Amino acid sequence: MSILVTGGLGYIGSHTVNALIEAGYSVVVADNLSNSKAQVLDVLQQITNKNIPFYQIDVTDEQAVNDLFEKHPIEGVMHFAGYKAVGESVLQPLKYYQNNVLSTITLANACKQFQVKKFVFSSSATVYGDNEVPFKETMSLLPTTNPYGETKAMGERILKDWVNSDSSFAVSLLRYFNPIGAHPSGLLGESPNGIPNNLMPYVTQVAKGKLKELQVFGNDYPTSDGTGVRDYIHVMDLAEGHVAALQHVTPGVHIYNLGTGAGTSVFEIIQTFERVNAIKIPYKIVNRRPGDLAFYYADATKAKDELGWYAKRTLEDMCRDAWHFEKSLNLIQIK
Ligand code: NAD
Ligand code: UFG
Fold first, then answer.
1. How many folded domains does the chain comprise?
2. What is the position in ligand 1's atom list of the atom closest to the CA of 148?
3. Residue 112 belongs to some domain of the structure
4. Contact by Cβ (8 Å): 322, 182
5. Do 332 and 281 form a contact (C-beta atoms < 8 A)?
6. Residue 120 · residue 283 · CB < 8 Å
7. Is the dihedral of CA 152, 205, 17, 20 positive or negative?
8. Is 148 noted as a catalytic residue in this protein?
9. Cβ of 16 less than 6 Å from ligand 1
10. Which end of the chain is more exposed for a tag (fewer CB within 10 A), N or C?
């Protein structure tokens, strides 16, 4: 029996494939390569020393998904596949609803048809909207500022309604905070197409000289130094959180924040990156980015209490590993 990892060649999915295999699971990957490269599969096979079955399919394609379930006995699904660029989702909302919502429905239907009982869903801290900080799993969801965030809230609701109709299914909704960093080998990491939207890939590209300077989106927030505060989590910790969620999932719906519980400002990221990597990051302060919240971080106690999982790696590890990966991209042209 295998775990089907959709989006398994993407940033978080690839690290999770590695973590699952390390934990002794067999894995099947489905990815349409819309935001990843086939070479990531080679890297994963090299790191894990395992042959990983791969299907280049679109997981909104019912026939293709059903064919995969026919071929492989699947024990559980980890659903990472989706689009994730917040700004693009405002410009192309239908593309986001179509991909992110339809993929979840298609996979849930396949699970129903093939009696696959375990489902782990990539949700996001964005579903909390501007709730009080720290965000707790018991809070009501508030509207997000963009279609991407709404697709995640919808995905959660769809899966909850599904389990309400048949309580034999076991679903884990994982709300990620801000994953950064990379596999310590420097072989897996985040390499966005075009100009990065997110802070850490922007920082590493400035460090490399690909981009001139970082733009800090606002220094007038009500935070300790005026810059935005987030709960950054090492992607390796996040990946291990998925394994813990899968190991503990029982019938019903279970929601977990995957974060560290600590907030870090943009200036703190810059300073830590500069210190651990001995590189200067030129930056300038610009206007706030529309839609950004001032600060948020997780209440991470539920995952620790129920899954026995907590984030172990430090901000220093995140900055060091992110830079190691960016430097390695010179040598290996992969995602
Ligand atoms: P990513 O873009 O690196 O990975 C997503 C993968 O899914 C890519 O390899 C892409 O090719 C694939 N894909 C997209 N649509 C597909 C489809 N219809 N069929 C098959 N494959 C498809 O993104 P990521 O950062 O690894 O994020 C993974 C998941 O986690 C996403 O659902 C994202 O919304 C969610 N998430 C990410 C973050 C973050 O900051 N990275 C935060 C919260 C939630
Ligand atoms: N920032 C900058 N300059 C940049 C990029 C970001 O100053 O070039 C700042 C932002 O204003 C924010 C912080 O750095 O204060 C983090 O921004 P990111 O874009 O890296 O991350 P976000 O918190 O905005 O959003 C990310 C994902 C969302 C996801 C959310 C979950 O992009 O998809 O985390 O918490 F929903």
1. 1
2. 34
3. yes
4. yes
5. no
6. no
7. negative
8. yes
9. no
10. N
Which one of 148, 202, 221, 310 is the catalytic residue?
A: 148
305 within a domain of the structure (yes/no): no
Nearest ligand to the CA atom of 15: 1
* Cβ 81 under 6 angstroms from ligand 1: yes
Phi, psi (deg, nearest 5) at residue 57: -130, 160
Domain that holds residue 27: 2-179+232-259
Is the distance from CB of 52 to CB of 45 less than 8 angstroms?
yes
Structural domain contains residue 24: yes
124 lines ligand 1 (CB under 6 A): yes
CATH number of domain containing 63: 3.40.50.720
Size (the chain), residues: 335
Which-ligand-closest: CA of 60? Answer: 1
The per-residue DSSP string of 29-91 comes to EE---SSS-THHHHHHHHHHTS---EE---TT-HHHHHHHHHHS-EEEEEE--S---HHHHHH
Which of 116, 139, 86, 88 shows the shortest CA–CA distance to 6?
116
Q: Please give the radius of gyration of the chain, using alpha carbons only, rounded to the nearest integer.
A: 19
Q: Does residue 33 have its Cβ closer than 6 Å to ligand 1?
A: yes
Ligand having the closest approach to the CA of 57:
1
Identify the residue whose C-alpha is closest to ligand 2 atom 32. Answer: 198
Tens-binned pLDDT, residue by residue, of the chain (335 aa)? 999 999 999 999 999 999 999 999 999 999 999 999 999 999 999 999 999 999 999 999 999 999 999 999 999 999 999 999 999 999 999 999 999 999 999 999 999 999 999 999 999 999 999 999 999 999 999 989 899 999 999 999 999 999 999 999 999 999 999 999 999 999 999 988 889 999 999 999 999 999 999 999 999 999 999 999 999 999 999 999 999 999 999 999 999 999 999 999 999 999 999 999 999 999 999 999 998 999 999 999 999 999 999 999 999 999 999 999 999 986 544 33
Can you tell me which atom of ligand 2 is nearest the CA of 269? 14
Residue 120 forms part of a structural domain: yes
